[in-house]
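HUMAN: Would you supply a protein with fold tokens?

ASSISTANT:
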Amino acid sequence: MSQSTVLRRCVSCRKLLDRQKLLKVTRDYQDGVVLSNGMGRSAYLCPTEACLEEAWRRKRLQKALRCQVPSSIFEVLQKRLNDSIDSVAEAR
């Protein structure tokens, strides 16, 4: 790893990974809960079905962000996950 790599921990599986490879969910002080951008308290998730399911089931994002996370956020995360899986399958 180079020195410029910034590591973050997945709230579900607790693995420490490069933040560029993780999905970012932020509690923004203006807009509520947002994906991929914004300033505020953030939580990171591995882009895997298992981590997303675990975060939903055990309310990991709610605990990490200290607020309610709308189900629409999980739906968008699921869609992004499905889109990335589809694009990997097409590349093969």
Notes: The domain at 7-91 is CATH 3.30.1230.10 (Hypothetical Cytosolic Protein; Chain: A;).
